[in-house]
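Two records follow; treat each independently.
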Amino acid sequence: QVQLVESGGGLVQPGGSLRLSCVASGRTFRSYGMNWYRQAPGQQREWVATITVIGSTHYADSVKGRFTISRDNTENTVYLQMNSLKPEDTAVYYCNFAYLAAPWGQGTQVTVSS
């Protein structure tokens, strides 16, 4: 059974940092690119970042230079380091496989507010 479990969210002040984690199970993790997405209240889910099987990374313009995606194939985990957070980064963050998407996990709430 394929499963995605996100964690690491919380409440942070503008300019702060958070590191999100996503543990994937049920597939050969190292064989898949991985994506992070986010969904703000009342908005559609949007793509945030991708890391390929060889470690190449791609980012949405809105987070480029502030967020860093990485992966640990030994732990079946993908990370999202978020720095210089802004109130507009407030959302529920999700991960998923870059193709053959799995059922969505519960996500992790990130709230950026003073």
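The next record belongs to a different protein.
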Amino acid sequence: QVQLVESGGGLVQAGDSLRLSCEAIGRTFSRYNMGWFRRASGKEPEYERDFVAVTTSGGTTYYADSVKGRFTISRDNAKKTLYLQMDSLKPEDTAVYYCAASTEPYAPTVWRQYDYWGQGTQVTVSS
């Protein structure tokens, strides 16, 4: 089991950068595939979240087309921390961002494939 705590959200202007962090509390962080998801305000149903990026336990990364080239996912297994570097932010990136851990044997890109979730951190990008 693992607990996840996100940080680093905030209010920025379009074109700015932010780095989100997700600290894992547990002993087996390196074995999980780790992903970032987001949910925009008003999106229904509330339990659905949009895929942003994933890094596998082996270090392979995948991105949603909407963030490819602007966002970078990375992990530091020694620090048990997941990161999301977000550059060239756009107003449409405004959302609550969640990190999640999956025990699936491949790179999951759908929210229901993840077992553990953080509480989320708000990112707001003004135009």
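Discussion point: The chain is about 0% helix and 50% strand. How would you locate this feature using only the token line?
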